[in-house]
Amino acid sequence: IYKPSPKFFSRIHIPSFERFELFQGLLFDNDYNKWQRKRKLLTPSLSSSKFLRKIISSVQKQFKESENRWNLTINDEKEFDVSLWAKCITMDLSITQVTKLSSYNLALFDTNNEIIKSEEVKKILKFSDALKNFLTMLPYFVLLPAFVMDYVPGFRSIRISTERSVKFVYGIVLNIVEKRRKELNEGAEFESDLLDHMLTAHTPMNPEYKE
After folding, report:
1. Residue 70, Cβ neighbours under 10 Å: how many?
2. Class of domain 20-200
3. Is the pLDDT of residue 178 over 90?
4. Which residue ranges make up each domain of the chain?
5. What whole-number distance in Å separates Cα of residue 209 and Cα of residue 200?
6. Upper half-sphere CA count for residue 179 (Cβ side, 13 Å)
7. pTM more than 0.85
């Protein structure tokens, strides 16, 4: 008798999520066979010792850079919202690990947006803002029926704005993934971030590969 993995459970079907193809991902996929294949890629990547060491190193680097900015800009005591600071460092780590892009959310927070004049910062900020917009507006699509999001003024604008953000983020990420896959196939040096681990999972290109 076929029995799905005990780690698999049926997800609640949310029609609005189909707009963003969220059912294609690990969290919301109700197809056990597809879910299992994705899990076999993600689980070893997240549990890799090289990846975990890379994360620890990245966190330490972020803290050190943030501390240096404080030493340069703060002459006395300063109060700030720790929850916002934590969100910034989490966003930076997530973007860097998945896309290899440098992210400046924490730097902007520490310097009160003083570095925003840089074109490179503006480009990355556009990406992170689109991602944050999608994550912020996602509850509307969970709680409200599709009819409201499609036709009710105000909510319709939210839907259109969110769909644009998702399309922009998907486009950037897809280009990054395709470019990095090509580089790895051509012999580029393996890096221990999540993107490289996912692209090389269960292949000889991964340093932790075992036959």
Report:
1. 13
2. mainly alpha
3. yes
4. 20-200
5. 9
6. 9
7. no
| 74-119 pLDDT per residue, tens | 666 777 788 888 888 998 998 999 888 888 888 888 877 766 667 7
Tell me which amino acid residue 39 is.
R
Quickly tell me which residue has 């520490």 as its tokens: 110
Structure tokens at 150: 């499609």
Which CB contacts under 8 angstroms, 24+ apart, belong to 159-167? 159/19, 161/133, 161/137, 162/133, 162/134, 162/137, 162/138, 163/19, 163/20, 164/130, 165/130, 165/131, 165/133, 165/134, 165/137, 166/19, 166/20, 166/130, 166/134
Q: Token pair of 52, please?
A: 């975990």
Report the distance separating Cα 101 and Cα 61, nearest Å. 15
pLDDT tens digits for range 37-86: 777 888 888 889 999 999 999 999 988 988 888 887 766 677 778 888 88
**Nearest to residue 128, comparing CAs of 94, 97, 159?**
94
Q: Where are the alpha helices (DSSP H) in the chain?
A: 32-47, 49-73, 82-99, 105-110, 119-143, 146-151, 155-185, 194-200
Task: Answer for the pair 133, 156: CB distance below 8 angstroms, yes or no.
Answer: no
When pLDDT is cut at 50, 70 and 90, the band that residue 6 belongs to is: low
